[in-house]
Design goal:
Layout: H1 6-13, H2 20-31, H3 35-48, H4 52-68, H5 72-82, H6 88-102, H7 116-126, H8 149-152, H9 162-168, H10 209-244, E1 246-247, E2 250-251, H11 262-274, H12 276-288, E3 291-292, H13 295-301, H14 303-315, E4 322-326, E5 333-337, E6 344-349, H15 350-355, H16 358-373, H17 376-402, H18 407-429, H19 432-450, H20 453-474, H21 479-483, H22 492-501, H23 512-516, H24 520-523, H25 532-545, H26 565-574, H27 576-601, H28 614-634, H29 649-653, E7 664-673, E8 687-689, E9 694-698, H30 709-716, E10 723-731, E11 737-744, E12 751-752, H31 755-776
């Protein structure tokens, strides 16, 4: 927080509150009759723009776009809202358009046409919408002289206690320059039910915090153990290279590092636990322009959020965070720090404050405060802080490599960036369990604090929609979202497909797999967030318990809670390599015990089973054999790519019992999105933008006598941001994806992938290496 000053007021007034380019592009799309594109652009403006003029213009454009697509009921609903607008030009236009829409059944053509002169009058009328009764008095832009009725009805204390001043913000005495939300701005998306809050509620029961605290401890221990193993592995590679660099009398063996990895890891983790507040704040200031957000500014966006923060400050004074503001248009929130008293920050983005309603912002703030209450933010902040090191190396080296023309230097950049990215993901893995489980706790606390699980439901869905739109707008996964994914309430990967489809296919049908698949939580083990439908179903049950309608109305579960034997078969196929690892570990431990007994009995022929390598060898053999067994059923043969049927993404997502092992050979037409250059050297960021929505792609290049893998990855760059036909195996998981088989475009020759061959090669190499190790008796 900062104290009020002229400089801070100037800084706040310079913050953008809307995206004029989206409004302009949306209105142009309406004129060109590109109605689907217009709806995608205008919905966000109509819903979250701070300027009432822009909101109304966007709503007008949406009416025309809905009518142009034949979605008459949605156009009528929005038109009826505009008929109650106080501006004469607006309600006159809305009344005339409403009469045209009501005649659509007789003549569809009239629904998409409108009086040009009337449209011009409407645009002129919007420019004089604000009160002009006192022209000599200069008012801040967008600040009305009276508080909107909806804000007056919000239960917010008129004064802030002194203790809250000290904990929440340095409250400014000057008039804030952030305009309040237009009361009707959040209803432009007709698929929102706008279900209300509970007026009277019963307790949801006691919360078992011990489970979460145990999980936090397990996460810390796992992080330490993994870092020790990682440092030891890197140390072994380094020493192996040094020992082999001898030329005659010249040797570098004096540079061998024999330091105990624990002396490196323990201080590193301790620093990460103590420093996230300063380290992450510094990074966000340098890379994302993080700015302070005062308590009064937050209340201008959401008075209820201010009340939630005040209540939390009174109850837990030492945990009250400062507030931060990001200028990003993507709706995101997260909290970091919290290990030290008073050293935590709750960050809200411009996109979140503009796209969410007042009560939805309050629900998000309450959920973030829950992470401070349970201290899980402190643990994950430490993990994220450590993960920034390899990710920063990956990103900086990738940008440097893109500027190099020398093949050797570019190749070096690829190697360093790929290794660094792999280390980033390996560190991230240790926090996935905690990242998933903590969200169920925060969702419950937010529902109880606000008595409004429906607001949190809408907030989560809007954040997923906004995230998908931002990925589509940038043409790649924003690095910032990937860096802070563990701290965010919505994962960027899981938001891609769901967020891009939900505006077109709203409702529970798209979320049914997340809610009812019996293996959904097992399949989420590789994801940073639980299935969104699973969370929304629990929120709907909270609403039903309190006697209110749910925002997303799920049908009663009709399937048994436990999977049937038929459902276990594809799941067993999916988990076969993991089962091989488990069997290998058990066999290795059994052989080790047998070797111990052989040593004591004097059976010298079998005492080698006690060797250190027996566990590793058994694991590799178990994994290799089970991978061989899974290849054919996991990758059904695709003989002729052009004969493969076109995929319908909504239909592929709908079966609630689908599993990744139930692969379907399909084709998708769309635009290939992803990072360019070294940052995408091995295809780690590939997204297909189809007419229906976004879909994650997985690519491994073919290994043939005419093409090596490096050439395949280089050729992949030629397809980025081009129209392509992607053929492969569609797999339904928490994050749906397509394993590529062939990628085709008009400007490049087809690019073949080699997923089955890579699986075969990996399994074969592991088994051969294990046999070699057994014969030579050493790793």
């Amino acid at each position: 927080m900062v104290d009020p000053s002229d400089s801070s007021a100037k800084r706040r007034s310079s913050r953008p509150h809307r995206r004029p380019s989206a409004l302009k592009a949306g209105l142009v799309a309406v004129q060109k009759k590109e109605y689907r594109e217009a709806i995608a652009l205008l919905q966000g403006v109509a819903q979250g723009a701070r300027d009432p003029d822009s909101q109304v213009k966007a709503q007008v454009g949406l009416v025309k776009a809905y009518a142009g697509l034949g979605r008459t009921q949605e156009a009528v609903t929005l038109c009826e809202q505009l008929t109650a607008h106080p501006n004469p030009s607006v309600y006159q236009w809305a009344n005339q358009m409403l009469r045209q829409l009501q005649g659509t059944a007789r003549d569809k053509g009239t629904a998409t046409t409108s009086n040009t002169a009337l449209d011009d009058d409407l645009a002129a009328g919007l420019t004089i919408r604000r009160s002009t009764s006192s022209p000599k008095t200069v008012q801040p832009t967008g600040i009305p002289t009276s508080v909107p009725k909806t804000v007056q009805q919000t239960r917010v204390p008129t004064s802030v206690p002194k203790t809250v001043h000290a904990k929440v913000a340095s409250v400014t005495t000057s008039t804030p320059t952030i305009p309040p939300r237009y009361p009707g701005s959040t209803s432009s998306d007709s698929f929102w039910r706008q279900a209300g809050r509970a007026q009277q509620k019963s307790s949801l029961g006691n919360i078992d915090q011990a489970k979460l605290w145990v999980l936090e401890a397990v996460t810390l221990v796992g992080l330490v153990v993994w870092l020790i193993a990682l440092v030891h592995f890197l140390q072994s590679i380094y020493n192996g290279i040094i020992n082999r660099m001898a030329f005659g009398d010249f040797s570098l063996r004096g540079w061998v590092n024999d330091t105990d990895p624990r002396w490196v890891v323990f201080p590193l983790v301790a620093i990460a636990l103590l420093s996230p507040f300063w380290a992450l704040r510094f990074q966000l200031r340098q890379t994302k322009g993080l700015k302070p957000l005062t308590f009064e500014e937050l209340k201008q966006y959401s008075p209820e959020a201010g009340q939630v923060l005040q209540t939390f400050a009174r109850q837990r004074r030492s945990l009250t965070p400062t507030l931060g503001y990001l200028t990003d248009s993507v709706p995101v929130s997260f909290t970091y720090g919290g290990f030290w008293s008073k050293k935590a920050q709750l960050v809200l983005s411009r996109g979140l404050l503009e796209q969410l309603s007042e009560e939805e912002i309050a629900a998000v703030v309450a959920a973030e405060l829950a992470h401070l209450r349970f201290r899980d933010a402190a643990v994950l902040s430490a993990l994220v802080t450590l993960a920034q090191i390899p990710f920063g190396i990956y990103w900086i080296v990738a940008q440097w490599g893109n500027r190099r023309s020398n093949v050797i230097l570019k190749g070096l950049a690829v190697v360093i960036s790929v290794v660094s990215y792999g280390i980033f993901w390996s560190i991230r893995l240790t926090g996935l369990w905690l990242s998933r489980m903590r969200l169920f706790y925060s969702d419950r606390i937010a529902s109880e604090m606000t008595s409004n699980p429906n607001a949190l439901t809408r907030a989560l869905l809007k954040m997923a929609i906004g995230t998908a739109k931002e990925v589509e707008h940038q043409g790649q996964t924003p690095a910032f979202l990937e860096q802070f994914d563990l701290l965010s309430p919505i994962g960027v990967q899981s938001a891609l497909t769901l967020g891009s489809l939900y505006p077109t296919y709203p409702g529970a049908a798209l979320l049914e797999w997340d809610r009812s698949n019996p293996f959904r939580r097992w399949l989420a083990m590789r994801d940073s967030h639980p299935p969104l439908g699973d969370r929304l179903y629990i929120l709907a049950r909270y609403a039903q318990r309190w006697g209110i309608d749910a925002e997303v109305e799920f049908s009663p579960l009709t399937r048994p809670s436990r999977p049937t034997p038929q459902e276990w078969q594809p799941m067993a196929l999916q988990a076969l390599p993991a089962l091989g690892l488990l069997i290998g570990l058990m066999v290795g431990q059994g052989l080790w015990w047998f070797g111990l007994m052989a040593d004591r009995m004097g059976w010298l022929s079998f005492d080698w089973f006690r060797s250190d390598f027996i566990h590793m060898v058994s694991l590799c053999i178990g994994f290799g054999i089970t991978t061989f067994l899974r290849i054919n059923p996991f990758f059904p043969e695709i003989k002729r790519p052009n004969d493969v049927p076109l995929g319908n993404l909504p239909e592929l997502l709908s079966p609630p019992g689908a599993l990744p092992a139930n692969a379907k050979a399909v084709r998708f037409q769309g635009t290939l999105l992803g990072r360019r250059g070294v940052a995408n050297a091995i295809g780690q960021d590939l997204i297909l933008k189809t007419d229906a929505g976004l879909l994650r792609l997985h690519f491994l290049p073919a290994i043939t006598s005419k093409q090596n893998p490096l050439a395949g990855w280089r050729q992949l760059q030629d397809f980025l941001h081009c129209s392509v036909m992607a053929t492969g195996w569609f797999r339904r998981g928490v994050t749906p994806w397509l394993d590529l088989d062939v990628l085709q475009s008009q400007s490049s020759k087809p690019l073949r992938a080699g997923h089955p061959l890579w699986s075969t090669v990996l399994a074969g190499l592991l088994i051969l290496w294990s046999c070699y190790t057994i014969v030579h008796g050493d790793l």
